[in-house]
Amino acid sequence: AAPAGKAAAAAAAVELESFTVEENLKRLQNQQHDHHQLIMNMQSTIDNLSAKQIELEAEIRNLKDGRWVVRAEPKSSRKRDASALSNTSAGAMLSSIGIHPSGIGGTTEDEEIDDIIQNRKMKKTWPLKRKYCTSFTNEVDLVKVRFHRSDRHTHKSIRIPKVEKSEGYGLGNKEGRLICRLCSGKTINRNTSWMCGTCCVPLCVDIVNGDPESSCHHRWHACQDLVTVNQMLNTALRERRESKKRSRDAVNDAERSAEMVRQAAALANPDALEVKVELDPVVDPQQVHPTAIAEDLQIV
């Protein structure tokens, strides 16, 4: 009976060990399959992130090169042209005093302009300190000054003087820069270092797209209604600055996104990922001693 019992125990041990080996093999295959699936998913993620990174880097280059600019859609109310103001009150006033907007064929003389400036200096209203556009559009004497041109009053652009003391033009101006009085407004201003030598008004001399008539200095002496032109130019200045701000924000967002993509790609790199799989030791059935198996199973 004892030898028969030992043989049965050995057969049971071999069968049990064979079952254990099959289970370990299945576990190993499942783990390998999971590992392979993980690598495939990570590779797909890396491909998507790499494509996104290339797209963001291209967008950053375009933004830095200025090939992509955010433009605000113009509103119909902002498309008014200063040349269409010939029938306004400003145009009527110019005709009544015999002044042509070009400054040619006017009835004013140098002496009259000198008297106007001298009288205003005596009243301490020259040079102007406020309401530049309104005053140079509606006040007859200032309109004469603005449109009169001669060898004495050339209306050339000159540098704004630096004033250390609180007297004269540019009250307390130590940098020689003041805001342009034609394109600046209540909330959006632009500084300039130039002024009209005759009108004593700070005016920008920058031109747009090579057009010499696009500077604020030229517009000041060519248009009739300065108030309307001021509103138009200030609106355009605000839109340009908002467009630049949106472009800068887009560049910063694209750079941050590109950095996040690079970090995610580095973390998802399979070469840098160590996968440790711990498996139960596999025992060869041929090396199993029946007595040891019987003792482990406590079979007598």
Provide structural commentary.
This protein has 300 residues and is mostly helical. Helices cover 52% and strands 3% of the residues. It is built from eight helices and four strands. It has helices at 2-65, 89-96, 110-122, 132-138, 140-147, 216-222, 226-267, 290-296; strands spanning 157-159, 178-179, 191-192, 194-196. It has a two-stranded antiparallel ribbon with strand order 1-4. Strands 2-3 form a two-stranded antiparallel ribbon. It is rod-shaped and about 145 Å long. Mean pLDDT is 74; it is low at 66-87 and 272-280.
Query: Spatial order of the strands in the main sheet?
Result: 1-4
Number of strands: 4
Question: Structural class of the secondary elements?
Answer: mainly alpha
Q: Residue ranges: pLDDT <50 for 5 or more in a row?
A: 66-87, 272-280
Classify the beta-strand content into a percent band: under 5%
In whole angstroms, how far apart are the ends?
11 Å
Taking Cα atoms only, what radius of gyration do you get, to the nearest Å? 43 Å
Mean pLDDT: 74
Helix content: 40-55%
Number of helices: 8
Write down the secondary-structure element order: HHHHHEEEEHHH
Largest sheet: 2 strands, antiparallel
What coarse outline follows from CA principal-axis ratios?
rod-shaped
